[in-house]
């Protein structure tokens, strides 16, 4: 049957790509790709544009499978070990986060999409959701959601140089926005540095620290927005309480700050998934120390 034009726009309707993302079928960008590949239909009619406006997903199929009505947005925290790819599959055959999540999540968990990415050798808090729109909103730099990392580095660096990052920095033509960086502890030329940023560009933390002449030997994300890694075991996953998710979504829409939420507290921990052997030989991350007052607060505007 020949393709049919999209229905006329309706004020009460939404674009099909957005509805598919909210239903957890795929992110909005991936949904647009599915449509371009001719894999989405309404009844027997092929959907030809992601701008098609619908009131709901009744009669919509992807690869011949009916799309279920969107569920409430759910959020999961996963303590990603080093050595896992943040992707569904890897052409090189390397293990992905889903290798570990198969054992870390309870049966019946919906399809989850990672919010942002962590590099192969970066560990720590990775949030996952069944809601493509929530994923997109949390990834957009314009949302201003802070991400905090702790980096174990080797080299010479001063707190003053770290504080200069609050003004942002340009490296090889790429500009990185403000970074709140503080020295946590130092032993000789080895130090732990805490960094908080809101953009999350590809390999941003490593590139900035390497630009400062430091060698990064370990990188751990400890929080994303109000959600904190806390004592969640490596390789384990836990669902964030629905009340905390709803409070966060309301705050995200209203631009309000949300109190911190410890990932290890909302629900019983799941059984950890497979972990690379090298991780067992690595030293534990030293406990965070209270941040000492920096000179930044005394600077004149």
Structural account:
The protein has 301 residues and is α+β, with helices and mostly antiparallel strands. Helix 1 crosses helix 2. Mean pLDDT is 84; it is low at 266-301. The protein is built from 8 helices and 18 strands. Helices cover 21% and strands 26% of the residues. The protein folds into 2 domains: 14-66, RNA-binding S4 domain (Structural Genomics Hypothetical 15.5 Kd Protein In mrcA-pckA Intergenic Region, Chain A, Roll); 75-298, Pseudouridine synthase.
Structural domain count: 2
Count of distinct strands = 18
* Main sheet summary: 10 strands, mixed
Taking Cα atoms only, what radius of gyration do you get, to the nearest Å?
21 Å
Our measurement of the CA-to-CA distance between the termini, rounded to an integer number of angstroms, reads: 66 Å
Q: Within the CATH hierarchy, at the fold level, what is the topology of the largest domain?
A: Pseudouridine synthase
- The name of the CATH superfamily of the largest domain reads Pseudouridine synthase
Q: CATH top level of the largest domain? A: Alpha Beta
What portion of the residues fall into strands of 2 or more residues?
25-35%
User: How does CATH name the architecture of the largest domain?
Assistant: 2-Layer Sandwich
Individual helix count: 8
């Amino acid at each position: 049957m020949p393709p049919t034009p999209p229905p006329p726009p309706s004020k009460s309707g939404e674009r099909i790509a957005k509805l598919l993302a909210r239903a957890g079928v795929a992110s909005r960008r991936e949904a647009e790709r599915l449509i371009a590949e001719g894999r989405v239909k309404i009844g027997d009619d092929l959907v030809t544009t992601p701008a098609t406006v619908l009131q709901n997903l009744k009669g919509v199929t992807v690869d011949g499978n009916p799309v279920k009505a969107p569920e409430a947005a759910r959020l999961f925290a996963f303590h990603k070990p080093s050595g896992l790819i943040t992707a569904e599959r890897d052409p090189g055959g390397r293990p992905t986060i889903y290798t570990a999540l198969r054992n870390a999540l309870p049966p019946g968990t919906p399809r989850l999409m990672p919010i942002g990415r962590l590099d192969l050798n970066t560990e720590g808090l990775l949030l996952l959701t069944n809601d493509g729109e929530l994923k997109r909103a949390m990834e957009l730099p314009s949302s201003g959601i802070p991400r905090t990392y702790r980096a174990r580095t080797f080299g010479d660096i001063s707190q003053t140089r770290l504080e200069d990052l609050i003004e942002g920095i340009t490296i090889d033509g790429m500009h990185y926005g403000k970074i709140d960086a503080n020295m946590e502890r130092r032993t000789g030329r080895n130090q732990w540095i805490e960094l908080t940023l809101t953009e999350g560009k590809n390999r941003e933390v490593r590139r900035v620290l390497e630009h400062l002449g430091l060698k990064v030997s370990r990188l751990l994300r400890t929080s994303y927005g109000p959600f904190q890694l806390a004592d969640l075991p490596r390789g384990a996953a836990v669902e964030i309480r629905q009340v905390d998710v709803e409070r966060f979504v309301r705050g995200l829409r209203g631009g309000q700050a949300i109190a911190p939420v410890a990932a290890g507290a909302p629900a019983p921990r799941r059984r950890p998934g497979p972990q690379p052997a090298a991780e067992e030989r690595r030293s534990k991350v030293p406990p965070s120390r209270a941040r000492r007052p920096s000179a930044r607060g005394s600077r004149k505007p």
